[in-house]
Amino acid sequence: MDKFFDFGLTAELLRYDFVVAALFAALVLGLLAGVLGPLIVSRNMAFSVHGTSELALTGGAAALLLGWDTGGGALAGAIVAALVLGLLSRRSSDYDSVIGVVLAFGLGLGVLMLWLYKGRSSNKFGLLTGQIVGQDFASLTLLIGCAVGVFAVLAVIYRPLLFASVDPAVAQARGVPTTMLALVFAVLVGVATALGVRTVGSLLVLALMVTPAAAACRVTASPLRATLLSVLFAVVSAVGGIVLSLAPGAPVSAFVTAISFLIYLVCWGISRSRRQLAQ
């Protein structure tokens, strides 16, 4: 175990610029995931996040095949996926089936594009599981710009969106444009999901977008406290996952998912204990 977690090597690696850039990217992703997560959980959009992340993989694979920036490709794929899912699933009863259909088609295209790509296999693997060396100046600029845009749009629509998330029927009866809000929020989630592909990978970005928020919602019903806890849990998972992955050189996503799942188990235990005390 000491050989696997070499703390001296970890401390040495933390001095490198690419590691610092990766930690900064993880911090921004944690903030994004933490703020969006409680709304994703309250709107039952976990499967949608999974579908969007897989279609971000398709966009990244297309960019890899064409020699373009994979971050931009993943972002384009996620935005297109969010718009397609929003337009095809006007009725809530159709939502899961539409996600399944589009996800299967897009994932098949992504696998084909990865097979056609003849470059380094590490580039393919990085799209699936994330890699800390993928953060350069251009990718950080894209990350910061998109994060600022997401926060700005969310600040404008947050109150009606929260209303529509808590009680959609009453919100619609009071004239809140629930359909438009759902479409805009789907695009915001798509952007945040795509930004996480380069660091966490498309397969397990769900752990960062959903698990911290689900853990926070286990211990509080307050939207504000749930958001603050979700941000804390997401940042700890993302930054901690990168730090723990340094010495063994293992995929970041493995540690991000482990930390976030451990946090969820603790919150689940707290919630269960509260219920037993109340009874």
From TrEMBL:
GO biological process terms on file: transmembrane transport
Gene Ontology CC entries for this record: ATP-binding cassette (ABC) transporter complex
Cited SUPFAM superfamilies: ABC transporter involved in vitamin B12 uptake, BtuC (SSF81345)
Keywords, ordered alphabetically: Membrane, Transmembrane, Transmembrane helix, Transport
Membrane spanning stretches: 20-41, 61-85, 97-117, 137-158, 179-197, 228-246, 252-271
InterPro entries referenced in this protein's UniProt entry, alphabetically: ABC_BtuC-like, ABC_TroCD
Cell compartment(s), UniProt: Cell membrane; Membrane
Domain of life: Bacteria
Membrane topology: Multi-pass membrane protein
Gene3D superfamilies from the UniProt entry: ABC transporter involved in vitamin B12 uptake, BtuC (1.10.3470.10)
Pfam families membership: ABC-3
Keyword Cell cycle appears in the UniProt entry: no
Xref: PANTHER family: ABC-TRANSPORTER METAL-BINDING PROTEIN (PTHR30477), METAL TRANSPORT SYSTEM MEMBRANE PROTEIN TM_0125-RELATED (PTHR30477:SF0)
Family to which the UniProt record says this protein belongs: Belongs to the ABC-3 integral membrane protein family.
This protein's name: Zinc/manganese transport system permease protein
Taxonomic source organism: Actinokineospora alba
